């Protein structure tokens, strides 16, 4: 008898599950017990929620030294409607892409436009890959506000960013509009399947930072799930510190 194993690799974020699955010769009681293992494994690994999909997309495409931006507006420049704000952020991203293209550097991003929390004013959150000249470029391409908040992705876990970017849900969006907008060049997480021996178990690799770990064992089989990442060695014990808020000046 062999267990099933599924692994999802999204950049430095890894999710793995090993579980005992039902077999044709199993009786009703054994099949029911093993089916519960299969259901637990599927629940852990299937990112059916918007938040779960976004977490893995962020991890698959961005490093922890990449950036999280919040673009805001001066009161006099605040768009009257959401559609106007979306046009502004799209222009910003289009111009950023041109700057990167000229420099021969790919530009990846994920953005959301929000207005349902805080002071209720329209603003944008953007995750983007970083370069050395981002501060100057961002300042020149966002003329609508005096303060741009900038943080390293490494200041928080990917799941925290995903939760933050989906906190408004579908409120205020046109019917059918997606919760966030990615650039077209994003990579998808890599998924592998295999069979392993019945005595195979899971444990966090040396040096891994464990985010989630769950085990279940019965007389008929087992289920084990783990989610972890490897912190870059040059961080030491602490992740990068935030860069903002930034009122039209470099504060690296």
Give a description of the structure.
- The structure is a single chain.
- With 252 residues, the protein is α+β, with helices and mostly antiparallel strands.
- The protein folds into two domains: 94 residues, no CATH class; 124 residues, Alpha-Beta Plaits (2-Layer Sandwich), CATH 3.30.70.260.
- Helix content is 27%, strand content 27%.
- Helix 2 crosses helix 5.
- The C terminus is likely disordered.
Features:
five-stranded antiparallel sheet; Alpha-Beta Plaits; 252 residues; 10 strands; 5 helices; disordered C terminus; alpha+beta; 27% strand
Instruction: Give the full name of the CATH homologous superfamily of the largest domain.
Output: ACT domain
Label the CATH architecture of the largest domain. Answer: 2-Layer Sandwich
- Output the helix-strand order: EEHHEHEEHEHEEEE
Question: What best-fitting shape do the alpha-carbon axes yield?
Answer: elongated
The domain count comes to 2
CATH topology value of the largest domain:
Alpha-Beta Plaits
Strand order of the largest sheet: 8-1-2-10-9
Number of helices: 5
What is the helix content?
25-40%
The total of beta strands comes to 10
User: Mean pLDDT, rounded to whole units?
Assistant: 82
Low-confidence segments, given as residue ranges, are 246-252
């Amino acid at each position: 008898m062999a267990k099933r194993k599924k692994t999802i690799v999204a950049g430095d974020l890894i999710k793995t599950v090993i579980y005992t699955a039902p077999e044709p010769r199993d009786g009703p009681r054994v099949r029911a017990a093993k089916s519960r293992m299969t259901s637990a494994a599927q629940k852990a690994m299937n990112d059916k929620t918007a938040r779960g999909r976004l977490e893995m997309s962020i991890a698959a495409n961005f490093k922890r030294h990449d950036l999280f931006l919040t673009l805001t507006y001066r009161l006099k420049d605040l768009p009257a409607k959401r559609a106007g704000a979306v046009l502004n952020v799209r222009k910003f991203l289009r111009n950023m892409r041109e700057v990167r293209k000229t420099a021969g550097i790919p530009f990846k991003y994920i953005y959301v436009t929000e207005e349902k929390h805080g002071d209720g004013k329209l603003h944008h959150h953007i995750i983007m890959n970083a370069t050395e000249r981002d501060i100057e470029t961002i300042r020149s391409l966002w003329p609508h506000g005096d303060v741009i908040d900038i943080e390293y992705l490494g200041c928080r876990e990917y799941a925290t960013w995903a939760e933050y970017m989906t906190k408004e849900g579908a409120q205020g969006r046109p019917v059918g509009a997606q919760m966030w907008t990615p650039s077209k060049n994003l990579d998808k997480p890599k998924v592998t399947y295999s069979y392993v021996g019945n005595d195979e178990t899971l444990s966090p690799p040396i040096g891994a930072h464990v985010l989630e770990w769950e085990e279940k064992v019965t007389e008929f089989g087992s289920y084990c799930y783990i989610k972890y990442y490897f912190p870059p060695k040059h961080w030491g014990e602490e992740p990068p510190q935030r860069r903002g808020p930034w009122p039209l000046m470099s504060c690296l």
